[in-house]
Amino acid sequence: MNKEYTNLANCIRFLSIDAVQKANSGHPGMPMGMADVATVLFRDFLNFNPKNPSWINRDRFVLSAGHGSMLLYSLLHLTGYKSVSLNDIKNFRQLNSICAGHPEYHPNSGIETTTGPLGQGISNAVGFAISEEILKKKVGKEIINHKTYVLAGDGCLMEGISHEALSLAGHLKLKNLILLFDNNSISIDGPTSLAVSDDHEKRFRSYGWDFIKINGHNFKEISKALKKAQKSKKPVAISCKTIIGYGSPNKGGRASSHGSPLGEEEIKLVRKKLKWDCKPFEIPKNLINGWKIIGERASKKAEKHEKNFSKKLKKLNWLGWSLGKNFKKDFPLENNVLRNVISKAIDRTKTEYLKTLEPLATRKCSEKFLEIVSELQCLIGGSADLAGSNNTKTKNHKIIKSNDFSGNYIHYGVREHAMCGIMNGISLHSGLIPYGGTFLIFSDYCKPSIRLAAMMKQKVIYVFTHDSIGLGEDGPTHQPIEQLASLRSIPNLNVFRPSDLIETFECWQLALESKNTPSVIALTRQGIKPVRVESSVKNMSSTGAYEILRTNDKIKVTIIATGSETSLASEVGHKLATEGIYSKIISMPCHELFDQQSEGYKSAILAETDLVVSIEASETNYWKKYTGYNGLNFGIDDFGKSAPYKKIYDHFGISTESIVKKIKEKL
Q1: Distance between CA atoms of 600 and 589, rounded to whole angstroms?
Q2: Quick one: how many helices (H) and strands (E) in the chain?
Q3: pLDDT digit string (tens) for 542-572?
Q4: Same domain flag for 301 and 335
């Protein structure tokens, strides 16, 4: 047993060593240290299909310690995935190679998620495991019944997000989750003892995990631990005591093998010690065949499953649903009855609202929308202990619990960062659509995960309420100022800030329709006056910005606003009109969608008047790309105040009287 496994593992080691050396950049130590564990996992336990990497019931393998990416690329290449060729490995860390410095998600490639920021992969893995439990409950364990394996290192466990995610996984008793801890006691600065003295076993057991200690270079111990993990009723952490840079006489067990190539002379010594008489990137034919057999055997097993359950797998067709361009025409593919029920309920809610035109907080408007669409099987909601404040949980939601995954709502607890990382995993797993809520100010906790969702082009929806100084008395610690601009700076992220119920419904529709872009929906705590007094067949928010009011044909001022400030902008326009100064009011619920419009459309919005004014209760610099340096920007470039919200608006000059006065002075 040992000789066969050792030879297979050495294929991983030397592909990793050679790729890092050729790139003159990378982390050879972890792949060298964890090659033995990975070999046993892929050879004897992992269910996967190189011929169909998107097979729904595959085990998920997540490399949270993403710096060791060559471990993953080597495994994919050796087991027969077409996505990673030997030439790709030779071009490790080079422009446009799939073998990037850290794993980057590519659909149908075997790379399940983008990792690199340590700990993110752990939270993604928790999301994968939750999704598996949800689907298993919906369609049966004969169709869906797989594991999620996540390989994490010391650094992953140091990051705070790991605590949040592991704690929730234990609470939910995710028995389908297995964490392989590369316990090599080395980080970039040196021994982990420089900064850490945690008792990992006590930590995991306190979360409600099982914990197994093994020698990560003893094949029998590795196999025994993985067998035991298959039967556990809890999530399992396997602490694999390994030697980083295993096989390197001078750098093994040291930080020098962590983040730098070994060097030509040291590689010669490794080849001699591990009895590897091959040139760089060369693998003996018998070992290539050995890995090929592992991949082919896995493919046959997967294909048999798909064939046996092909009819029942059609039960999952709803995962491929689409709203299309129009709710009425192309709602989800779950069934026509549900499509019609939801479409009619949306129209009915809009009609009732337009009869009363009562001031409503947009968080409440969002709740009304969620009450309608909560019947969708693919929509999984949640909140970071703020369900009642974010209005993300409705009377139609059912809580997901450790003993019952038939629900559609997750109580994430006060774990904003893990929530967003877990939602990435839920989205990546199979097409479930996650949304989660917290206050906009706490998007700062979430930003690393949001950024990765944007990078991976995932349909993840963030419901961020209490979106301005309008939250009032909670004061500057809770009042977002720079957060909207910060989120708008992230590529491939749509940031919606609707002004009333009609716009909130439209923005939710756009978020659900989006195929490759995550969405932020920023919502008010306070009630605000509606700006749309009639419904429209067209989704007006789809252009990002549109005219809602024109006080005269001959105008001198263009006033742009978002969210709660849009009704204020209308008041300013009416007040100016009484003094003979005419304007048009533009609602801009989504800057990103507006920036995608034609130059002609953008010019019609922005270039009709010499003076362009922005009103938004957030930082003002971002708005200058629309108003120009000759424009006026009403907002806040300091921290907020603790007081009733109307008094705070007055204090910062975001009031009808103050804005009208300054516009007149400018003209």
Answers
A1: 19
A2: 25, 18
A3: 999 999 999 999 999 999 999 999 999 999 9
A4: no
Secondary structure letter of residue 221 according to DSSP: H
pLDDT value for 18: 98
Q: How many residues does the chain have?
A: 667
198 and 245, same domain (yes or no): yes
Take residue 132 and report the two structure tokens written for it: 């598996």
Q: Which two tokens stand for residue 576?
A: 């100016």
The residue type of 136 is K
* Mean pLDDT of the chain, nearest integer: 95
Looking at per-residue pLDDT, the higher value among 333 and 667 belongs to 667
Q: What confidence tier does 337 reach under pLDDT thresholds 50, 70, 90?
A: low
Catalytic residue numbers read 416
Q: 575, 522 in Cβ contact below 8 A?
A: no
**Cβ of 537: how many Cβ atoms within 10 Å?**
7
Summarize the chain as % helix, strand, coil (round to 5). Answer: 45, 15, 40
Take residue 483 and report the two structure tokens written for it: 């957060």
Asked whether 431 and 135 are in contact (CB, 8 A), the reply is no
Would you give the end-to-end CA distance of the chain in angstroms? 85
- Of 522, 555, 577, the residue at which a domain comes to its end is 522
**Burial class of residue 250, CB neighbours in 10 A (0-12, 13-18, 19+):** middle
pLDDT (average), residues 322-327: 34
Is the Cβ–Cβ distance between 494 and 332 less than 8 Å?
no
Helix H segments across 315-442?
Answer: 336-356, 362-373, 387-390, 416-430
Domain span at 302: 2-308
